[in-house]
Design a protein that fits this description.
With 145 residues, the protein is mainly α. It contains four helices and no strands. The chain has one domain. α1 runs antiparallel to α2 and α1 runs antiparallel to α4. The mean pLDDT is 94.
Length: 145
């Protein structure tokens, strides 16, 4: 089986959805002061996000671009969502790495300060990644050549 036959969009949407659940769980755990559980969930969420990134890049090389067929308001909405998602997906990588690094080194005050920015941006990227999938592959699938 070739790489292009793999269901990368579905895999990536599931990974993004899993990251969203992990981020939500990690947020709840830290609010409950369950630090060890928070750490485990956030490390797992980071791992899921790394797997997503590898899968996404591999899928783009294997399958190429996908076109959006929605029109009118939905076209404007989709491209606004995609643009903000893409920009923040690039921005979030160094934020995640810095926030994670601070936690792993035990610098919790700085970790907490960085996490106040990292968490909402990472969450947005995760949720909008799932929305982009649904808009592109479920609600307005491309039928043209």
């Amino acid at each position: 089986m070739s790489l292009s036959a793999l269901p990368f969009p579905e895999i990536n949407a599931c990974l993004n959805g899993t990251a969203t659940v992990g981020l939500t769980t990690g947020f709840i755990l830290i609010k409950q002061k369950r630090i060890a559980a928070h750490r485990a969930v956030m490390l797992a969420t980071f791992f899921v996000s790394v797997v997503f990134l590898i899968s996404y890049v591999t899928g783009k090389f294997a399958r190429g671009l996908t076109y959006f067929d929605g029109q009118g308001f939905w076209r404007w909405f989709y491209f606004t969502l995609l643009t903000t998602h893409t920009i923040l997906a690039i921005v979030i990588v160094p934020l995640i790495l810095t926030t994670l690094s601070l936690a792993l080194r035990g610098n919790y005050d700085r970790h907490r300060a960085w996490a106040k920015w990292t968490f909402p941006l990472w969450y947005y990227v995760s949720v909008t990644g799932v929305l982009v999938y649904f808009m592109l592959f479920q609600w307005f699938p491309h039928h043209g050549g």
